[in-house]
Amino acid sequence: MTPTEMEARIVRYGDLQPCKTAFIDAHTPGSDQKENFTIIGGGVSESPDQHVHITIPHGFNIGAAGQPPRCRNSLHNHRTAEVFFVLKGRWRFFWGRWGDAGEVVLEEGDIFNIPTNTFRGFENIGTDYGMIMAILGGDDAGGGVIWAPQVIEDAKDHGLVLGDNGKLYDTKKGESLPEGVKPMPLLTEEELAKVDEPTPMQVIGGYVRRYNDLCAIASDAPAKVIGKQGVIRDRPGFEVDLITRASATDSKHSHDRPSVLMPVRGHWRVEWEGGAATLAPGDTMSVPENLAHSAVPSMTGEAALYHVIGTDDPAGATWKG
């Protein structure tokens, strides 16, 4: 594969194209400055304005959220896995029907495999623009977002209506629901009663891992972060490893399906037969299946990257086996 062909599979941080109208809370005060990025796959955006950088199916989606300080992403749910790691800033994640069942603060490099069937939200509590990178299970990301009822009601007060076709309509722009499309129904009390509200101990102990702890594990070999043998024992349809300078090797290897490299610290030189490229934090690289490649730090200093690859496990609910 030529460098030009491979460059088409690299999304540089500086080339990311944001969407500011991706979700139903785009006009809601406190959430109206969010930027959503769909890097690999269709994502879960509700807006036709959303740009998709790489459409090649991987068995999972890669996205990102960028937010200024104190900007919040409203309470929502997914049918498949949603995994975040912090690229920039300091973030508070919260969960529960009203967002008060528990919370955890994540720093740069920390990773959070949010349990399915749980309402979750997050906000940037740092002092500058922050960015979190996201991995969503399945090629169709579980069919979209399930919003807490109050989010849909608040959004309507600010001009946005979500149709039962999963698309947004802005009444402030004179838009209305097309013929045959009804408003997205609110979850009933019976449906809400079936949504989990795990305790802080359950969530933080089972689904959050700190960057420094993972780096210590990755001193001899890549740290298995999420997967059958991961420190987070979940099987959401993909596996996540953390590779550091200490565990990187220049020996080339390949996979039978596409994989993704996402640096979180340092610069990384990726080599393959036919070329090489350098990745920086915030860049995302899709490595084709069966392409022998290697990835090693290209400069001195701290270096770490997350590696994601799909598995044959179904992209369904959080695995409890």
UniProtKB/TrEMBL annotation:
Pfam families linked: Cupin_2
Keyword Ubl conjugation (UniProt): no
UniProt GO MF annotations: isomerase activity
Domain of life: Bacteria
Record keywords, A-Z: Isomerase
Family annotation (Gene3D superfamilies): Jelly Rolls
UniProt cross-references to InterPro entries, sorted A to Z: Cupin_2 (IPR013096), RmlC-like_jellyroll (IPR014710), RmlC_Cupin_sf (IPR011051)
Annotated Cupin type-2 domain residues: 72-132
Keyword set includes Nucleotidyltransferase: no
Protein name in the entry: Mannose-6-phosphate isomerase, cupin superfamily
UniProt organism field: Cribrihabitans marinus
